[in-house]
Amino acid sequence: QSSFRPVIKMTQVFVYGTLKKGQPNYFRMMGSTNGKAEYCGKAHTVEKYPLVIAGPYNIPFLLNVPGSGHQVKGEIYSVDNQMLQFLDEFEGCPHMYQRTLVKLQVEDWESKSSSPEATPAANSIVEAFVYNSTTYQPEWLNLPYHDKYDAYGEHGLHYTEREARD
């Protein structure tokens, strides 16, 4: 009877769109079939980025153009490798989105799994992966920039769920 337990490497991912709580794809983060994802807390990007709603399906895109747009609000999750692989596929990485490290300012931290000394304080800076796009259409830079995304928000741009696309 070995007491060996494999170390499961967890990766922090910042979500700003349809994968957040209350959004159309949140269930994909919570379904254990895709791997493990634990909500850690709320944060916003340290740098400004253009967050646009684009394309025929009104998908939120964080354009990889640091310094323009807004500090974008979202949620940090700690995910295992299985969930990270699922998210890479779900986000069309590396073709539609690229996974890059960004600096985030913590707004509040709820995760109980980290030890108290490993819990970032409010306003501290952490790094997490974000799915952003360097492969966007140039005219997207002319779209309105948002500081947060809500599929049901006042913008009135109805997000088309993957299963409903042609």
UniProtKB/TrEMBL annotation:
Domain of life: Eukaryota
Record carries keyword Lyase: yes
The enzyme's E.C. designation: 4.3.2.8
Enzyme class: lyase
Residue ranges constituting the Gamma-glutamylcyclotransferase AIG2-like domain according to the UniProt record: 13-132
InterPro entries attached to this UniProt entry: AIG2-like_dom, GGACT, GGCT-like, GGCT-like_sf
Catalytic reactions on record: epsilon-(gamma-L-glutamyl)-L-lysine = 5-oxo-L-proline + L-lysine
Keyword list, A-Z: Lyase
Keyword Glycoprotein attached: no
SUPFAM superfamilies: Gamma-glutamyl cyclotransferase-like
Function: Catalyzes the formation of 5-oxo-L-proline from L-gamma-glutamyl-L-epsilon-lysine.
Family (UniProt): Belongs to the gamma-glutamylcyclotransferase family.
Protein name, entry field: Gamma-glutamylaminecyclotransferase
Organism: Huso huso (Beluga)
Lineage: Eukaryota, Metazoa, Chordata, Craniata, Vertebrata
